[in-house]
Amino acid sequence: MIPWHPLRFRPLYKQYLWGGQKLRTVLDRPLDPNGVFAESWEVCDHGADQSVVLAGPLTGRTLRELVVEHGRELLGDAGWRARQALPSRRFPLLLKYLDARQDLSLQVHPNDAMAARLDPPDLGKTEAWVVLESEPGSVIYAGLKPGVDRPALAKAIDEGTCADCLHQFEAQPGDCLLIPAGMVHSLGRGNLVVEIQQSSDTTFRLFDWNRLGPDGKPRALHVQQGLDAVDFRLGPGAARRGLVQPENGPAELARCHAFVLHRHALTVPRVLGGDDRFRMLTVLEGALTLDGDPLDEPLARGGSALLPAAAGPVRALPRGRAVFLETHLP
Ligand SMILES: [Zn+2]
Asked: Separation of 197 CA from ligand 1 center, angstroms?
């Protein structure tokens, strides 16, 4: 019998070339000031990339091991059944931070049906971004401008003018953007965001700004598969902005077939979970303590935790005022 409690994990850092220093300077992570850090994976079960438990009786265990050995307790009954239907049988969601010092490539992800036909089969990828910080003039590209059809997009990719086909908007802290599978998108330089996504490996790169990779060659594009994956009915993406954030109540930022995302602003304790579903939490402002957390330090800005379904209701206590995201399965 495992005494289930909130799980805290060691972050996994990705040093892609487009990254910067904001994970250190904004989120206060103990990172090399001379390094380039693009992503911090907070909750992940993704091949060799595994969240490892930091404290408590499960210290040192990977999320994959917990899913395989204790899936029903971790995921809850509905989550367990959903996971059994996945080609990869992995933990279904992934939580990460992204620091874009450069523009990311223009890309698209397949939906579940198309991904299931890949070799090997995969999960589709719908994702959501919540903007933490945005430098003046930083943009997000999301969705095609009205009227852009497959021939027009294919021609623009061919001519290196793909970005002209995309809707773009200036990002603001607090923006939340749901990016359904099939929507072309790119995170523009100067944005620090939280990403919640289906745990999928499949990205089709349509355009890479005519850049060269670290080896001096252009990175591979996946134009045909990408065009097949684009859902031309989707149109421009729109951030949820100016959403009223109730004090001590949740605001729903995104809801899709893969996850439901809420933002909380707490000045008093609140009970989370207790409905046989797991929760992923990450703190945007302030600090939060979770009852039963074996790690003797509160979740500070950028800190994340996983509440296993079997942990039951967990009381979250803000230190002053805490703003955080809560994600669960629909
Ligand atoms: Zn993406």
From this structure: 9
